Amino acid sequence: MWRDPGTPADSYYQLRPECSDVPESKFRIKAGKTLSSRKWKASFSPEGYLDIGKTLRRIQRGGIHPSIRGEVWEFLLGCYDPKSTFEERDQIRQRRRVSYAHLKEECHQMFPLVGSGKFVTAPIITEDGEPTQDPIVLQQINLEKEPAALTVGNGNDENPDASGGSQMEKQSNGHGAMDKREIQWKLTLHQIGLDVVRTDRTLVFYEKQENLSKLWDILAVYAWFDADVGYCQGMSDLCSPMIMLLEDEADAFWCFERMMRRLRGNFRCTERSVGVEAQLGNLASVTQVVDPKLHQHLETLGGGDYLFAIRMLMVLFRREFSFPDSLYLWEMMWALEYDPDLFSMYEEHESAENLRDLLGERPSRNGTVGSLKEKT
């Protein structure tokens, strides 16, 4: 019987011509199996209620068409409730965009390159909070030549004669000595920049400076938002697809934030343990039962601790598979383990968090974000 081989998904994620060693994608868009734009739109009632059961079954059969992947992911990750209307979701979307704008502005006030279309790849402060005078940093910030990059709004600088050094010191010190949280955040900014320039460099999408800057901005804001975890290597691999699939930066941020609620434990490392240690143990146990010969072989080679799988588990095989295949893997997992109460759980905790803000009972965002992630 003839079977439709499907359409390759690579055309939706263009590769740079010089990158010829990229693994070929196995994922194929198949009519009747892959969730198409037409089927997706037909899954909504006139008011906007989503038939999530029907949608999940379609995804499990053949994944999601790249043209609608971003908006479908927002439901899979719990950004929106399937039982909400078009109007209710629009209100939530606008509220979140305002929240992200406030977060980004807060970060911009601490370090003006956030939101400027630029980013750094060299340290901007020392470990004790003192500003560096690294020429690479000053060149990247370009303070003396482009002071407008440090202003908000129309780019008119009220003090164009300020020197690069004094501006750097002013922005680093703010209104006084920086607290530990701000120092830690600023120490990670160049690490984010170094990872950004290495993330998905085979894709044409990241040839544009604006897309690199958008990725850096989101990761920088998230590192401030969830200071308990901050930023760790590998997060850029998880965030990159969000930038490509969701045009609005705020929407991409909140989709990434929802994804991190599932995965933030992977990035919480101490001197005694690695975040994915429990998963490594589970992997060893499963392999020992499913394929005891393979497990024995790995132990013979000295790999019985499964440390070789740390990267695979931390970034969900982003670097092991092609870009389209890794996205297909993710959405299949999310569809199979989808919890219909996911959105409600998130919203309940966020409402409690906002109430603590109003009552002045919340000591810091640090602890509440951690508590929220552990409960959800």
TrEMBL record:
It holds the Pfam family RabGAP-TBC. Residues 63-337 form the Rab-GAP TBC domain. Residues 151-175 are annotated as: Disordered. SUPFAM superfamilies: Ypt/Rab-GAP domain of gyp1p. One of its GO terms (molecular function) is GTPase activator activity. SMART domains: TBC. InterPro entries: Rab-GAP-TBC_dom, Rab-GAP_TBC_sf. Residues 164-174 have a biased composition (Polar residues). PROSITE patterns: TBC_RABGAP (PS50086). This is TBC1 domain family member 15. It comes from Sesamum angolense.
